[in-house]
Design goal:
This protein has about 625 residues and is an alpha+beta fold. It has a domain of about 150 residues. Helix content is about 40%, strand content about 15%. It contains 24 helices and 16 strands. The chain has a seven-stranded antiparallel β-sheet with strand order 2-3-1-4-7-6-5. Strands 10-9-8-11-12-16-15 form a seven-stranded mixed β-sheet, sandwiched between helices. Strands 13-14 form a two-stranded antiparallel sheet. α7 runs antiparallel to α8, α12 crosses α15 and α14 runs antiparallel to α15.
């Protein structure tokens, strides 16, 4: 920052839907990276409104800044933060903040200060008198002026995520493109002006509008192309955005997620203009990640026309009087002709299986009129609604219901892209970046044909499987086969899945004999493994042993990928409970990961850990707390 920058007051308001106080540490960390480390807690914004320098803006006229500042407070130990520091680019800050609904900047009304705060923004003439005046500068920036003893200006800046996160609700509610147009406009106007509008609680079912969803305590998670597909145990996007801020990524940097899942980190990186790499052993997940980012660049009218043509072709098949005579039949002459393994054919409806195949054929006949890569991406995009509902389609739904389900979800995926393009045109032109995605084994990262993975990565944000809590292969096994993404799901699980539930029982001997590999694990992992092995949970002990050994190897590969001095941030369930014959044992996953990262061969420096309590945790099966672990490569 240059030395002649003016000092200003910053007031940051936390979002009303932050899930609980355990996340406040992240909100403070991102501000300390972006603005200043000298932050004061604001327990209640009435406190700062009742004294100078903000007191002059408290008004009983038509324009009342206090209504903006105090509406929908975060109901926790603090409502936000105050800082006094040099003026900085508020537009750049608005593009990055994750945990804040809005922020206010109090400054002297000089041209130089306004230029520092809003660079490149045309500033109309503003006036000062005893009454508060308001000027709309941008869809996400307003200026208030007043002069009591001296002239003052107060900027209200709405972070961009506050404006585009409602797309989560829009995609769920919209039935056609016109609905997206209307609700986008309504949501922006609501955030700009509707400061005294009461919102409808969740119990009220009648006459709810997009404004009520925005104002509810439900935190949107599937905004923009996040909406295209989600999986169990996925990242919370706001948390990832805040972590990226604490790591201070800049344009030209490259972020890595070696357990990318459905691509939450990669989408957040793209939205913030940061290049990224996604790696996962699950071919469906890497397809999802690739499409979520690449579809950001597609022209929405082009996509709409191709979806309409595809649905028309499928509709023609559905209206056929004899569905089973169209193309391949579901009956097979030999085991090698089976679409699915015999073990997965139980309860499968033949008419539904036939219709799903016919949908696939229609998709594979699509032509993009563009390059071969885009054509393949377009086809994969149109297959994803099948993957999302595949098990239900094959076992429960008849062809008519399959078509309805498929059509509805495909259009909602389209709405997420349409919303993004409309947002870019009318609100702010987000500078998205591309992603490279690999279906690969994290334990062999350096063998990938990408030189950046050999010591050129600027930061890693990842969330490995939480022990053996989720069976990612079996959850999507029908989609893997029907979409041609796997020939043998058991082989995929055995060879690539970190901590597979179907681990070889031969690993049990290594635990009981305390082999060299076993002793290389942290002591916090060794004890529970031995106890499970001796108390009737041999298979579980073997699965966890494989998990910890796999993670040890993964840490080594991740460390080798990082530049010196750069950070690896891991989000992991703090503990997982395993039921024994006469009790329960807790596996301290967070502590074990901290120790694995510090040990050879990874040899990372542990900086700090932040515990975040999960909102929907339960005693049965759910992970009650996540551990966010910060490492740095020495």
């Amino acid at each position: 920052m240059i030395c002649d920058q003016a000092n200003v007051h910053y007031y940051f308001r936390l979002k009303h839907n932050v899930q609980n106080d355990s996340e406040l540490a992240l909100s403070r960390l991102e501000l300390e990276t972006l603005i200043t480390k000298h932050l004061d807690d604001i327990a209640n914004f009435v406190d700062v409104l009742s004294r100078q320098p903000l007191l002059d803006f408290v008004s009983d006229t038509q324009i009342r800044p206090q209504d903006f500042i105090t509406r929908l407070p975060y109901p926790g130990v603090v409502q936000g933060y105050h800082a006094e520091d040099v003026a900085t680019d508020c537009i750049a800050v608005s593009k990055r903040l994750a945990y804040f609904r809005e922020f206010f900047v109090l400054a002297e009304p000089s041209d130089s200060t306004l230029t520092q705060l809003l660079p490149g923004t045309p500033l109309e003439k503003i006036e000062f008198d005893g009454n508060v005046r308001m000027y709309n500068m941008l869809p996400y920036v307003q200026i208030f002026t007043v002069q009591k003893t001296e002239p003052k200006i107060l900027l209200r800046v709405i972070p961009l995520h506050t404006l585009y996160e409602p797309s989560d609700f829009v995609c769920r509610l919209a039935q056609k493109v016109e609905h997206v147009d209307r609700m986008l406009g309504q949501s922006i106007r609501h955030l700009q002006t509707q400061v005294r509008r009461p919102y409808s609680p969740s119990s009220a079912r009648w006459f709810k509008g997009i404004e009520d969803f925005i104002d509810s305590r439900e935190a949107p998670q599937l905004y923009l192309t996040h909406y295209i597909f989600g999986i169990r145990g996925r990242f919370f996007p706001r948390m990832i955005g805040a972590i990226m801020n604490t790591m201070n990524f800049s344009k030209g940097d490259c972020a890595l997620d070696p357990f990318c899942g459905c691509g939450t980190m990669n989408v957040e990186a793209a939205i913030h203009g940061i290049s990224s790499i996604g790696v996962d052993m699950h071919p469906l997940f890497t397809m999802i990640t690739r499409l979520k980012v690449r579809s950001m660049y597609w022209e929405s009218q082009w996509l709409k026309e191709r979806i309409e043509q595809l649905l028309q072709n499928i509709q023609t098949i559905l209206k056929s009087n004899n569905l089973h005579q169209l193309g391949k039949r579901t009956t097979r002459n030999s085991a090698s002709d089976q679409i699915l393994p015999r073990s997965l054919m139980k309860s499968i409806r033949k008419d539904s299986l036939e219709f799903v195949e016919r949908i696939k054929s229609c998709i594979e006949d699509m032509r993009s009129s563009l390059d071969e890569t885009t054509e393949k991406d377009l086809q994969d995009f149109c297959k994803l609604p099948l993957a999302y509902w595949m098990r239900s389609m094959l076992k429960k739904q008849d062809p008519a219901k399959i078509f309805q389900t498929y059509r509805e979800y495909l259009w909602k995926m389209f709405y997420s892209i349409y919303y993004l393009h409309k947002f870019r045109r009318e609100i702010c032109s987000l500078e998205t970046s591309n992603v490279d995605v690999y279906t690969w084994d994290v334990r062999k990262l350096r063998q990938l044909d990408d030189s950046r993975l050999r010591g050129e990565i600027d930061g890693i944000i990842t969330s490995p499987p939480y022990g053996t809590a989720i069976d990612y292969v079996h959850d999507h096994v029908w989609a893997l086969y029907l979409l041609g993404l796997a020939e043998d799901h058991l082989k995929l699980d055995e060879e690539f899945h970190i901590g597979s539930r179907r681990s070889k029982e031969s690993l049990l001997n290594e635990i009981l004999e305390k082999s060299e590999g076993f002793q290389s694990l942290p002591e916090v992992a060794q004890g529970p493994l031995l106890e499970m092995a001796k108390r009737g949970r041999e298979q579980k002990a073997s699965a966890f042993y494989k998990y910890f050994v796999d993670m040890r190897d993964a840490f080594e590969e991740m460390s080798e990928a990082l530049k010196s001095g750069k950070q690896l941030v891991m989000i992991i369930g703090k503990e997982q409970s395993v039921t024994l014959e006469d009790g329960v044992i807790a596996i301290q996953l967070g502590t074990a990961m901290e120790e694995l990262g510090k040990k050879e061969p990874a040899n990372l420096e542990h900086i700090t850990s932040v515990d975040v309590t999960l909102q929907k945790a339960s005693e049965r099966g759910a992970i009650p707390m996540e551990d966010i672990i910060f490492f740095k490569k020495k």
